[in-house]
Amino acid sequence: MYRKFLRLTKSLTVSFEKLVNQLTTQEHNPLYFHGALPLYVFWFLIFSGILLWMYYIPTLDRAWSSVNYISALPTPGDPINLASGIPYGAVVRGIHRWGAAAMMIVTLLHMFRVYFTDRHRSWRWLPWVTGVGLLVFVLFVGLTGYLLVWDARAYYIVVATQHFLNAVPVVGSSLSSFLVGGEGITDYTLTRFLFFHVGGAVGIFFLVWMHFIRLKEPVVTPSRATNFLLVGFILLAAGTLPAINITHELLAKYGNDPRIAAQAAYVASDAPAQIGTLVDTIRYDAWYMFPFWLIQNLGVGWTWVILGGSTLLLCVAPFYPKDRRANIAEVIEAKCTGCTFCSLDCPFEAITMVERAPGSKFKQIAVVQAARCSECGICVGACPFQAIELPELHSKTLEADLLALVKKGA
Amino acid sequence: MSEPKRTIIGFVCERSLPLERMLGPDKALLDDPDTKVVIVPCSGMVKPTLMEAALTAGADATFVCGCAIGDCHYRTGNLMIRERLQGKRNPKLRKTTDRRKVGMFFVTMKDKSAFLEALAEFKASLDVKPLPEEE
Fold first, then answer.
1. B38 contacts A401? CB cut-off 8 A
2. Nearest CB to A393 within list B41, B91, B106
3. Is it true that the peptide bond before A258 is cis, omega within 30 degrees of 0?
4. Beta bridge partners of B34
């Protein structure tokens, strides 16, 4: 039943990609680079984030105005003269803001593509489980990014998160004071959030390393043509998204000047946070804010159940259903010369070269780690000495089959 | 369909073409009885010596068919066999092997008609270039 479902999703995915292939050809189909896309967007976030960091001041009284100084919204009555902002600051902040949304979108695309094509199970459990970790980290880094703006919404998120953490038995209140760096919200709180945001991004790099550790030559960048197209798309989006987001209210607020209204529509912070004054409801972002929507509508308990439960389900997904695993590659000791071809070609790093005992005819021998073997036979194709074989599909059988076929045809 | 006059041996990845609907009982393609198919779990399992063995045994041509480039179920199998046949990765074809008789196709499991077209083209290319006789 479940296997049938996976076969169906695979068939649908391939049909959809066939359509894209007709537009882009196989070599440049962006869906064949689904794993490289999140990393690609991540570079945009890193570089725009470094630019934003240069002007960010993590204190309660300056955080909001420093962020808005970058994007230079000429808000009437603001204590700092924001009109003299940073050239293209709004574009950089816009790329960081909308890049975060793109990050979640391409990460989910990657996850569903891998799941729908049944490429998450068994020997691939480590990339999948670290991938779940990466998803959690992306969510965490995205949310802490919303806190740094330190507007009314950020304050709401902090209060709701404290509420959420307080529900944990025994350690709940410690967790919640760990979050804000003390009993109440102080200047230390924002320094801590800045660390969560930047440190979390570094944590993503660490998890990406874990994600790749069992993959031979992971695809880390889309094809060159796709790269150029994506840069163009991002610049185009940076230009058009604000235009789409201009509302009548924004236009009226900024004296009917569409240029300034467009700048405001890029990122639009709420009013500065005021500690002790909680807004009734916040603007929900489609990709990162859903935990707070859950907290508000279902309560803290159900949010814990839903978030924890779905993470747990994702983590156990690769272990069910179990395959038979009868065709794991075997090295024929007498024939293996230690040439390393199979270990170089194994796509899942399942073959390691080990020193033979002193006095042996050959220096090294290939050793298969059964749990990592995908039974694909790529090592059989790589071996010039018939020294590694799949037990249920010996290359001698293949050769006999093909000779019989040639004879029948002639 | 004309009388079978050629023998073409294809090594086909079981995940690339919908083989269960394409093969007759004698392992020949229903749409092209000249072509006999050896099924492999991944195109990367094919080694050049196996294709050379088919040619030496008397096949007129041989080809390998794998998943679309970028979409190998085992990540790199189709890239591996492509590089081996292009001479960029070990083990390679022998220098004396006639490369015109060795084809490769990379298609998804929904590309049956595209594959048959490419195969017909491959067969036609055998026609226009008469292969040199052995001494």
1. yes
2. B41
3. no
4. none
In this prediction, residue A323 carries a pLDDT of: 85
Any chain B CB within 8 A of the CB of A399?
Answer: yes
In chain A, the residue whose alpha carbon lies closest to the alpha carbon of B49 is A384
Give the chain B residue whose CA is nearest to the CA of A395.
B50
Residue B134 within any structural domain of the chain? no
- State the CB neighbour count (10 A cutoff) for residue A177: 15
Domain of B106? Answer: 8-128
Tally of domains in chain B:
1
Alpha-carbon distance of B102 to B126, in angstroms, equals: 10
From the number of C-beta atoms within 10 Å of its C-beta (0-12, 13-18, 19+), residue A241 rates as middle
Residue B18: CATH number of its domain: 3.40.50
User: Which chain A residue has its CA at the smallest distance from B82's CA?
Assistant: A381
Is residue A95 a contact partner of residue A44, using CB atoms and an 8 Å limit? yes
* Antiparallel, parallel or unpaired: β B61-66 and B8-13: parallel
Place of tokens 């394409």: B22
Instruction: Supply the DSSP symbol for A386.
Output: S
Does the beta-carbon distance from B53 to A393 stay under 8 Å? Answer: no
* Cβ pair A376:B108 closer than 8 A: no
- Please compute the mean of the pLDDT values over residues A189-202 and round it to a whole number: 95
Residue B135 lies in a domain: no
CB pair distance less than 8 Å for B41 and A119: no
Q: What is the pLDDT of residues A349-404, one digit of tens each?
A: 999 999 999 999 999 999 999 999 999 999 999 999 999 999 999 988 889 988 99
Residues of B in contact with A398 (CB under 8 A): 38, 40, 50
Asked if ipTM goes beyond 0.95, one says: no
Are A17 and B74 inside 8 Å of each other by CB?
no
Tell me phi and psi for residue B2, to 5 degrees.
-75, 165
For chain A, the average pLDDT equals 88
Q: How confident is the model at residue A80 (pLDDT cuts 50, 70, 90)?
A: very low
pLDDT tens track for B64-121: 999 998 889 999 999 999 999 999 998 999 999 988 999 999 998 888 999 999 999 9
- Domain A330-409 sits in CATH 2.60.120.10: no
**Where do the domains of chain A lie?**
2-319, 330-409
Architecture of domain A2-319: Up-down Bundle (1.20)
pLDDT at residue A66 in the model: 87
- Is residue B21 in a domain? yes
A347 touches chain B (CB under 8 A): yes
Shortest CB distance from B70 goes to which of A15, A26, A393?
A26
